[in-house]
Amino acid sequence: MIRPSSNSIPRFGNPSHKGLSRGISLLESLIAVALLVVVVTAVLAAMDAGRRSSDEGRRLTMSALAAEMLLARVAQGNDDAADAAKWTKALTEWNGHAESSGAIRAGRHPLLPLLPVDYQDFNLHVLAESDAHIIGPPLSVHIDGVRLEVQAVATDGRSLATVCRFVPIPQHLAEMTP
User: Fold this and answer.
1) Residues 58-87: what's their mean pLDDT?
2) Which end of the chain is more exposed for a tag (fewer CB within 10 A), N or C?
3) Rounded to an integer, what distance in angstroms lies between the CA atom of residue 64 and that of residue 172?
């Protein structure tokens, strides 16, 4: 029986690669590890940026909700007012009112609980002034009322949210005004 010589048929791989190692070289390993580090760092940075963005969005939402709650308290006005002037005075007395960080309440009464800690990272300021809206022809209507604005301001001075409303004088009081 004739056997082929060991030089004519390579045992493994292509005969043109004789003498080269078939494993991963140290340089290839270092490049792979460097790429892995870059990718993991990029993913972690993106996750951190997403978390910070989510926290800021949550803070903006909470400040807007707290401003809305304070505006609702202010807009309740004085239901016992005998005339439009007393009603307007009751609302404009809120002008300059402020609720500082840590003292923001859930309602109008001082015995109501403070809002949760998440709602306490900003200050609220109220602007209340008499105003009138005039609707031109063909209706030609003049509406007296109070313009209310509540602004939520971060402790670093940045404006987080502003909520504005025009509250017309209640019709039963407006009809009594000469």
Assistant:
1) 84
2) N
3) 32
